[in-house]
Predict the 3D structure of the following.
Amino acid sequence: MWKSFFGGIHPYDGKDLAKTQPIEEMPLPTELSVPLSQHIGAPCQPTVKVGDMVKRGQLIATSEAFMHADIHAPTSGKVAKIEPRPHSGRGMCPAIVILPDGEDAWAEGLPLARNWEAMTGEEILTAIQEAGIVGMGGATFPAHIKLKPAKPVDTLILNGAECEPYLTADYRLMLEQPEDIITGAQILAKVLGTKRTVIGIEDNKPDAAEALEKAASGTQIEIARLRTRYPQGAEKMLIFAVTGREVPAGGLPMDAGAVVQNVGTVAAITAAVEQGLPLTERVTTVSGDAISQPKNLRVRIGTSYRACIEHCGGFREEPDKLLAGGPMMGMAQQSLDVPVMKGSSGILALTKKITEHPEERNCIRCGRCVNACPMGLVPSMLSILSERGDFPKCRDSYGLMNCIECGCCTYVCPAKRNIVQYIRLAKGEIRAEAERAKAKAAAKAAQAKEAAK
Amino acid sequence: MSEREMKATAAPAEARPAAPADPVFTISSSPHIRDGETIDHIMWQVVLALLPVALFGIWWFGSSALINMAVGIIAAVGSEYIWQRAMHQPLTAMDGSACITGLLLAMSMSPLLPPYMVAIGSALAIIVAKQSMGGLGFNIFNPAHIGRAALMVSWPVAMTTWTKMADLSGGAVDAMTGATPLNILKMQGYDALVATFGGQGQMYTSMLLGTRNGSLGETSTILLLLGGLYLIYKGYINWIVPACMIGTVAVLTWIFGPAGLFTGDPLFHMMAGGLFLGAFFMATDMVTIPMTIKGQIVFAVGAGALTVLIRLVGGYPEGVCYSLLLMNAVTPLIDRWLKPRIFGTGLEPQAAKGGAK
C-alpha cells in the first residue's frame, strides 16, 4: 500500500506548543458575531430579526440555494444587530450579532437521544443537513452534499493527518474523543455504503492512532499511519497515500472512488445524528510563539479571535501576523474582531522571528520547488510567467489550474520568491478573463437577438 | 440616539479609550513560514566544497595557483559590483555566486596562465555571460565556461602551457613533460602515457591524488569527490548528475578503446582532464541545467557523450568545457520537453477502476 506521495516538505511543526493541552471549554464571550457565509456556496439569509430572542441550536439563517449549509444560534440570547462584520475569508461579511443571555439554553427538544443504527441513510443525511455541518478542516464544503456523491465510491477516508504546523485540534480530538470519531465513521460508511473505511494519521501522532485503534477494535475500520510529510492532509495526497489512486486532474475525490471527511467533521456528525445537535461549536487551536498560553479550545461559533487570545493569556510578544488556520495555507488577518467560524481550525499569532524572510530575488532555477511540488508542477516557471503577465501560458503549458496552493514551493525557495502569490494572481486573472469572455458572449447574443427582432 | 452614542458610532476608535491599541498585523499571501535556505548560503557552501581542491592546487602548483585564484575571484566579484553599481541594481556581488565563477574559472585553467588573462576571463564571464543576460538566474551558459572559452580563442598558447612533469619513463619514450595526460594520450598514444607515469599503477595513483599536470583545480580526483559528496550530502546537488556524466564517459571510453571495441581505459578517462570538476561543480550549476530530474539525466548523459566525442575524435584533447556549454544551450529545450507528470493526468483508466465498482 502507498503510504505517501511525491514531493512535499517537512517543516518545523510547532505542535509542541499546544499538543499537551487538553481541550478546554472556552467561556461564553459577551458577544457572538455569526457570519452568514461560513461555507462554500451561497451565503445564507437571516431567518431572525433584530430584537428576536434565540435559543442555542435554533436555525437563524438558511438559503434557497442547493449549495449551502444552515446556520444556527451558538447560544441563547438576543439578536442585537445584523450588519457587516469582519470575516476571516472575505474582509467584511454580514453577520448576526447575538448577545448571550448567560443561560445557554438549548432550543426545545434538544438534545435528542437517537440510535443511528435504527435510522435510514436518508434520515441520517437529513440530520446532517439540518445540523449545518461543513468540512471543518478548513474547506467548509457542505457535508450533506459531499455525502451524496454522483458516482459510486468504495472507500471512506477520515482525515486525521493534520499536517499543518502548529495545529493540534484534530490531534486532541482524536486522543480525547476517539469513540465519537469511530461512531461517526460507522454512520458515514452506512450512508455511503462503502466497504472500506480508513482513518489516515501522520506517524508523528502515534498516541492518537493508538486511541483510535482501541476505539475501533471490533470494527472493520483501518487506521493508516502515514509518513509525516506536508501536505499529507491535502485531499488528493491523502487519497493517494491510502488507496494508491490519483484523483484525475480537475476531478473530485469521487472520481477516485473515495470520500474524505475531516475527523472533526465526523465527530460533529456523530453529535448531529445521535443527539440532533447543530454545529454551534468546534475545537480550535490557539497557538504561535506570540501567544502566552497556547491552548486547544472548544469555542462557540462567532467568538472573536480577541476573546480567544485573551483567554489564552493574551500576547507574550508583539505579533507580526495573525492567521486563520495554519502557517502554510492559513489566511493573514488584519483584525482581532474576526470570529471563529465552522472552518476555523486554528488561530495563530506569530512574531517577526518566524514570519520575516529575506527579500525576494530572481529565480535561480535550482529546481527545489519542482521537487517539492506534490502536484508535479513546475512552480518556478509558473511564477516567472505570472510575473511576466503571460497568464494563458501558465494555464496551457504549465498546468496552472492544478495548483492546490499548498505552499511547499514557496517554503523551499532559496530566492524567497512568493510563488504561491504569483500563482494566485495568475489564477485570478484567468478566472476574470473567463468571466469577461462570458459577459461579452452574453452581450453579443443579446445583441443578435435584438437585431433579429 | 443620544449624542454620546452618535459620537461612538462616528469614531469607533474612541469608544474604547482604555484598551491598548491592537497590534498592526502584516498581511500577505500564504505560506507564512519559510525554510532557512538562501541563495547566499548555498553559494558559499559550494565555495566551501571547492576549498580542499583549491588548497591542494596551491600546495601542488605553488604560489601562481594562489595568485590566479585570488585574481579570478577579485575580478569576478569586482566586475559584478561595478556593473550593479553602474546599472543601479541591487548589490548582490557578495552572494557567493560571482566568487564561484571566478574560482571555478581559475581552477579550470593552467596555473601558469598570466594573472591578467585570468582577470579578463573573469570580467568577461561576469559581464558578458551573466550580467548582460539579466544576472544570476537568467544566464543561459555557465559564466566560468564562457570565460574559459573566450580565453581559449584569445590566447590559445598561454591556455595550453602547462607545468613540467617529471619523466618517470627513464627516457624510454620521448615523453612530453610539459603536457597534460590527455595531451600525451592525444599526441603519443596510451603506451607513452603509461610510460610517462612509470607504470599503470603509478598513473592511477597520481591521477587519483592529483599529482599530475593539468588545470589548477582539476587534478585531485579524490578531493573533488570529497567536495562533491559534501554537496550531495547537504542536498545542494543531485548525485544523479555527476554519476550520469562520469558514467557515460566511462562506458563510452571503454567501448571505443584505442585497439578496437571494449579495449579502452575508462578509469583513466574518468580521472583525466576536468571531468570530475565539471561533473560535480559545473554540470550541477543549478542556473544552467534542467530543473527536473529527467532533464538533468538527459543533460548529464549528453554532456558525457559530447566530452568523449571531443576527446576521442575532436581536435582538442579535452572536451568537458565545450560539452557543458553545448548542453547549456539546449537546457531550455530539455526543460520544455521533460516536464514532470502533473498529478492526476496521463492516467491509465485506473481512476475508473477505482470509481466504477
Q: What stands out?
A: The beta strands of chain B are 256-257, 260-261. Chain B touches chain A through 48 residues (CB under 8 Å).
